Amino acid sequence: MSTATPQRKAAIVTGAASGIGRAVADRLTSDGMDVLAVDLRPDPDGPGIPYEADLTKAEANEAAVNEAINRFGRLDVIVANAGIQHVAPIEDFPVDKWNTVVSVLLTSPFLLAKYSWPALRASGAGRFIAIASAHGLVASPFKAAYISAKHGVIGLVKTIALEGADDGITAAAVCPGYVRTPLVEKQIADQAKAHNLPEEEVIEQVILAPHAVKRLIEASEVADVVAFLLTPAGRTFTGVPVTLDHGWTAR
Length: 251
Hints:
This protein has helices at 19-30, 58-72, 95-123, 144-164, 182-186, 188-195, 199-207, 219-229; strands at residues 10-14, 34-39, 49-52, 77-80, 127-131, 170-176, 240-244.
């Protein structure tokens, strides 16, 4: 049964329990959207309507789309944000970790686009946003799966933009530099091991090294960019990466 008023737009935000996803879900809710906040471990006190889903499973992506449509009576926006990371040299990179990272970062966005396509078409102004990364445009060592998947999701966004143009569906990839999130904080120990550095030196010597401006980006700043892309003015940004990376990719 629909729980939304017909005039309100509806969105799915994945990885919505923390970090960028939570900030985006909070911003879209504040902007008047109905939001299905999808996460492996959803926060019942977070923004939007929490929904538990293991996005490594194809049927879970389809179920999330159906849940949003059933609850809200429509679906206008997908924000594919769910993320996972593993840091290791290629020689030592576990195959199961590769498969998991790629399934969350690349296959899940594809499945969300596939299953939501009829609803996005019916919206008349459907919008697909992938939270990619500056690592969708450049590479760093020891993150083979993450970087490969992020490069791939930018290609997916370009394809969605071309295929969706006649149906009023537009797509963009938001590509931030390093953002202050639990995902970044959790990789400090692995980065220290991979680079043979003390953990206290990782932020400055590894994480912020590619930034021209030596500051972590805040999740709310990424949410502001997503919110802009969902405005009428933002719809001209289709099939493109949108960077906010403190000068990283200027090098």
